[in-house]
Amino acid sequence: MSNTSVSHCTWLGISCDDSGSVVEINISRQDDYYYRLSSMNYSQLPNLSSLRMSGYYLPNIIPLQICALPKLRHLHLSTNALIGELPLCLQNLTMLEVFDIHDNQIVGLIPPELGNLKRLIYLDLSFNSLNGIVPYNFSKLKELKVDLPRSQYEFATWHVPYNFNKLEELTQLYLQGLLLWIHSFGIGNLTNLAYLCMKGNTFNGFIPSEIGNLKSLIYLDLSYNALSGTIPTTLGHIDNIDLSYNYLTGKIPGNLANVNYGAFIGNEGLEKTDGSRRMSRVVLMTIPIPLMAISFIFYLVLRHLILFRRRMKSAQSEMIEKNGDFLSLWNYDGRIAYEDIINATENFDIKYCIGTGGYGSVYRTQLPNGKIVALKKLHHHEAEDPSFDKSFRNEVKHLTEVRHRSIIKLHGFCLHKQCMFLIYEYMERGSLFCALSNDIEAVELDWSKRLVIVWDIAHALSYLHHDITRPIVHRDISSNNILLDNNMQAFLSDFGTARLLEPNFSSNLTANIAGTRGYIAPELAYTLVVNEKCDVYSFGVVAMEIIMGEHPGEIILMLSTLFREDIMLHQILDPRLPIPRENSIARSIVLVVSLALACLNSNPKLRPTMKQVSEAFMAPKLALAKPFYSISLAQLQGNNREVWWEGVSKENSSSPQEYQGS
């Protein structure tokens, strides 16, 4: 990419100045070609000011040559499967203003030298495996938006320096997902702070009263911690607040009475004030009552509305006492009420319906704030069926407890006999099954995107099985329950049949076999024992389906015996895609198929765990000892898999024996 010719200035994602010198590279995984970070000649890009390469999933280390770009101001390398540590030479990028490297596999500590980047205003190191202490000399930076590291696979202990309060220009501070211990760092001095998110960190003690002194604060999230004591009245000026799932006690301050009660759920010691009870009803209305009536007509209008609300409240109270319903509405935006949902869907008009699932219909809904969401509504006749009702509530229970980037996000819910619905993040591309069934979308879903989907679902299942306090078995892993956003990123959905794994073996017995035909582990037919190996089997089916472009029914039937030697790997690949030419793609396909075959073992004890599968995908890919065209399924089955990794001994190989689970 030389500056001596201007032909490169017409390339997709390349921007040049008037002299033909490259000043910006902006390439994402949607583009038609790939660049390896290590193969670029950075010495020929002296005027490069912005480098954005995201979503390439090409395992590599951050090349040291990047440190020699004197004019670089923006560096975005997110979601590239980068490994290794952050190079110390990054301190040489003295013009750097934005550094975003989230969602990689970076390890080690943050180099203290990064604190010398005086122009840095935005730093995102989240979703990596970093650990240790936030460098003290970060406090030299006066304009910094921080999203501190949080690993998606494991918790780590982080310490915030005592002089963090010197970041007086700080406007956004996110300490989320793994901060287990924190010094008191004078948060009250961060007077320009507008957004403060410190959720999921097991903070204990009282809510610092000085947070109330932050007059610029408009967003506060302290949910999923271990905070105790009462809620300070000084927080009343904050527009958006979430204190759910702590150990708070006492009364909710009167100046927070109009906040959605979802912001306080999970605090058993909190007393429900009249305001909070009112906010937990199906119909949520906030009617400002002025201290003095401006006119008699205005008074009559208010009086009419108040009487109407009282009648509705009385009716709802009677219904609650009669039915014993669990009610909760809305965890997304406290200002969006039940009637907004009715209006947005025109009372659930069929024209907004985009699909029908096992126990309800799904609607595409645009909320008053412009957000488009998916709404799953349980049908009236199904709400009266105890099994459907249980599945619906089960989905709410599990999705409010899990947090993973590849698990569908639950924005809110309403559980009531008259109307039950869930509010999800809307997935533009629909299900993976639909994408694979459509020839145009299947071609768009190229090998790199398909591999990423396999990896993402593997990591999500590993999280459910191994990284939360009470493991969850999904029980219905299928291509229909994997949803795709506009960037073809995959999200695991539909937790209606999910179950918590109990340490007591007998507690995991089931009277009903849940799941989708063709994805259910065969042993369930005679053992009726639910465990994580059921999900492992279903994952193997989905992984093969992604590679083949169709359900692998015939392959599964052949697994009862050894594959014939003449069934070649390349012959089962989705014919709508070209045979992979890049070695990295070919190696990854071999790994996926090898692990998928191990997951499909009829003996659940011989299947790998999802943690082992996830770790195998994260490990460096070894070179193939033979050409891709010459590899057969028989060679990837059983004990022979280690042969196809060059220079790998039997002890170090990723053979199925290594992944045997108990």
TrEMBL record:
Listed GO CC annotations: membrane
Cell location: Membrane
EC class (word): transferase
Pfam family, one: Pkinase
InterPro entries xrefs: Kinase-like_dom_sf (IPR011009), Leu-rich_rpt (IPR001611), LRR_dom_sf (IPR032675), Prot_kinase_dom (IPR000719), Protein_kinase_ATP_BS (IPR017441), Ser_Thr_Kinases_DiverseReg (IPR051420), Tyr_kinase_AS (IPR008266)
Membrane topology of the entry: Single-pass type I membrane protein
PROSITE patterns: PROTEIN_KINASE_ATP (PS00107), PROTEIN_KINASE_DOM (PS50011), PROTEIN_KINASE_TYR (PS00109)
SUPFAM superfamilies: L domain-like, Protein kinase-like (PK-like)
EC code(s) of this entry: 2.7.11.1
Chain ranges of the Protein kinase domain: 348-629
Transmembrane segments: 282-302
Sample GO molecular function, one term: ATP binding
Catalytic activity: L-threonyl-[protein] + ATP = O-phospho-L-threonyl-[protein] + ADP + H(+); L-seryl-[protein] + ATP = O-phospho-L-seryl-[protein] + ADP + H(+)
Swiss-Prot/TrEMBL keywords: ATP-binding, Glycoprotein, Kinase, Leucine-rich repeat, Membrane, Nucleotide-binding, Phosphoprotein, Receptor, Repeat, Serine/threonine-protein kinase, Signal, Transferase, Transmembrane, Transmembrane helix
Binding locations of ATP: K376
The keyword Nucleotide-binding belongs to this UniProt entry's keyword annotation: yes
Domain of life: Eukaryota
PANTHER family registered for this protein in UniProt: LEUCINE RICH REPEAT KINASE 2 (PTHR48005), MDIS1-INTERACTING RECEPTOR LIKE KINASE 2-LIKE ISOFORM X1 (PTHR48005:SF16)
The protein's name: non-specific serine/threonine protein kinase
